[in-house]
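Thread title: Can someone regenerate the structure for this chain?

I was given the following input by a collaborator and told the matching structure tokens would be attached. They weren't. Posting the sequence so someone can regenerate them.
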Amino acid sequence: MPRVHRHRMRGRISRQRVIQLLAAALFNGYAAGFRKGRIFTGGSKAFCVPVLNCYSCPGALGACPIGALQTALGAKHHFPFYVLGTLMLFGVILGRAVCGLLCPFGLVQDLLHKIPLPKLTVPRRLDRPARYLKYLVLALLVVLLPAFLVTDTSIVPPLFCKYLCPAGTLGGGVPLLLADPNLRKVAGALFGWKALVLAAILLASMSVHRPFCKYLCPLGAFYALFNRFSFFQMRLDEHKCVGCGKCEAACPMQVEVTKDINAPECIRCGKCKAVCPTGAVSSGFARGGASRPAKKEAP
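Best answer:
Regenerated them for you:
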């Protein structure tokens, strides 16, 4: 790769990383919580952040939207207009840019993937069907079961948070157990299961880029529904594109950039833009110049 493009890519990745780190610090700004092993209970906890960020994380200043959605549906007292409205607002404005730029657990997966271990590409015949799992998790664990499951108490626990969410285990369960010996004594089989899920996803992240985002995250599934018409869009200039394929080789989500740059799987990380040798890829909020499939040059 020419030196100028290597510098451009480093600069772009550096900017992405800075945004990710600032977002993680903003959403988990209660530093005393980590030191004392206490959950922040201030007024901001009534508001949802746009990313997976466990309510039980000692530093969390806001509520996780997926947790809040399950809790509201599980209590069956009212429809969660506020939570859905918040998610739709971010979906309409940013789409899955929330995943690529703001999500702390996305940052964790990105950093783990930098560990120098052999990298794996999931075969298309397995990868494509597996992408639909996150929509199943959203529909079943987050919406349908909390809304319609009947229990003795008439309250359904947040099933995704309780049994599957690795972000909650990493950000909430692990710090609290490290800070409180009494919690370690009562941690049982359920925490053991959640720790196993977390370990599997963290290990997979070292070889497969963002496996949780691709296959299991219900919040990513929700934002994916808005990707094609969100205000923030990726664009491909067909007149500049030379069909070199560098953009698709660089995409961590295996998006077919030259065919469908705003596909539901695109997290707007900007890697395709950084490696494009002709500047054919751009991004932004302006609506003019919508992208079209690129015309590839004949070999």
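Residues 3-27 form the longest helix (25 residues).
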